[in-house]
Specification:
17% strand; 5 helices; two-stranded antiparallel ribbon; alpha+beta
Length: 137
């Protein structure tokens, strides 16, 4: 993990992220910060979100359009995400079998220093109970 220098802007961003339960965009976070009285430029928000993600303090996923979304990391251990494509609910999971398989594939292919993320999308039980169907995708 990267050790980050503390700045008032980074502290405000990190603190705001702990109050948001779902994955969120940099633009939405900037709007939250604005309502809290922080005047932080969007480029600074993006830069700090990326630094916090690289340090392991934030999780990232990409939405359907490819936009990166951020969320306070609930666990410090390497994990992956199961994401509801309808409501965005996210469940973190560990996958030791997948880790072994990916390590073997990397080794067999002559790769080292490999990093990865696994993001699985589906329909959560709450959305299914509310009548959303997989065909609505």
């Amino acid at each position: 993990m990267v050790n980050l220098r503390r700045t008032s802007q980074r502290t405000a961003i990190a603190t705001a992220m702990t109050t948001i339960d779902e994955f969120t965009s940099a633009q939405h976070l900037k709007a939250v910060l604005d309502t809290q009285g922080h005047r932080i430029g969007l480029a600074t928000v993006y830069r700090n979100l990326q630094a916090l993600a690289e340090s392991g303090k934030l999780d990232t996923i990409q939405d359907e359009s490819g936009q990166v979304l951020y969320r306070h990391c609930a666990t410090p251990v390497h994990h992956h995400h199961l994401v509801c494509w309808h409501c965005g609910r996210t469940v973190e999971f560990e996958a030791p079998e997948a880790e072994k398989l990916l390590a073997r594939i990397a080794t067999d292919s002559g790769f080292t220093g490999v990093q990865h993320t696994i993001e699985v999308r589906g329909l959560c039980s709450s959305c299914r109970a509310a009548g959303v169907s997989a065909d609505d995708e």
